[in-house]
Specification:
Radius of gyration: 16 Å
Largest sheet: 5 strands, antiparallel
Number of strands: 10
Shape: globular
Number of domains: 1
Order of helices and strands: EEHEEHEEEEEHHE
Length: 197
């Protein structure tokens, strides 16, 4: 929706049922899917994020966008980092994880749908991503570092999982009051964060 020359961007927040649904497979890349991807990239940038899944803007489709700064790449990058960092922003269509490493890594995570809430999340250090990439064919590649974590985080959204679900109980107890406040606030504001830019 346009206000003069400004556009209204909305991200759904914790408590919205769309964040708990399993997203639908995209059968074909249509002009509408391309437009949705462009809108998601703009929203991700406006909200100052590094990833955004379609359910977060109210579209229950298996689509995610990722844009991580090049300087975040590991010094010894995985093949996926080396391949995909130069192609940012990424638009992943029907992405899936084929393999997860047995070694784990812990890092604080946040989420545009859980604003101002951060907590440590343990995830596999590397994953094998299998996905169509808008205007980039198909990739099956191992990804680690921040990219591997971001892929796991965004793909969780496509299955109705938010990062706070993966926080260990002792850490979750620390953020529980913030989660309750967010849901209470969201209920009064249609579970939406809005920026006009």
């Amino acid at each position: 929706m346009l206000f003069g020359n400004k556009e209204r961007y909305v991200v759904r927040t914790l408590g919205d049922s769309v964040l708990r649904a399993k997203a639908a497979v995209i059968p074909a890349v249509t002009p509408e899917i391309r437009a949705l991807a462009e809108r998601m990239i703009r929203a991700m940038r406006v909200f100052d994020g590094i990833g955004l899944a379609a359910p977060q803007i109210g579209e229950s489709l298996r689509l995610a966008v990722i844009e991580i700064p090049q300087d975040a790449m590991e010094k010894d990058p995985t093949p996926g980092e080396a391949l995909l960092y130069p192609r940012m922003p990424l638009v992943l269509i029907n992405p899936q994880i084929l393999e997860r490493s047995s070694d784990l890594a812990v890092r604080d995570e946040g989420c545009l749908s859980l604003p101002d809430i951060y907590a440590p999340v343990v995830r596999p250090a590397r994953v094998v991503l299998d996905s169509d990439i808008l205007d980039g064919g198909h990739v099956t590649v191992e990804c680690g570092g921040l990219l591997g974590r971001c892929i796991q985080h965004e793909l969780d959204h496509l299955d109705g999982v938010v990062f706070s679900d993966r926080v260990l109980p002792e850490d979750r107890a620390l953020i529980a009051p913030d989660l309750r406040r967010l849901e209470k606030y969201g209920a009064k504001h249609h579970f939406q964060r809005v920026i006009t830019a």
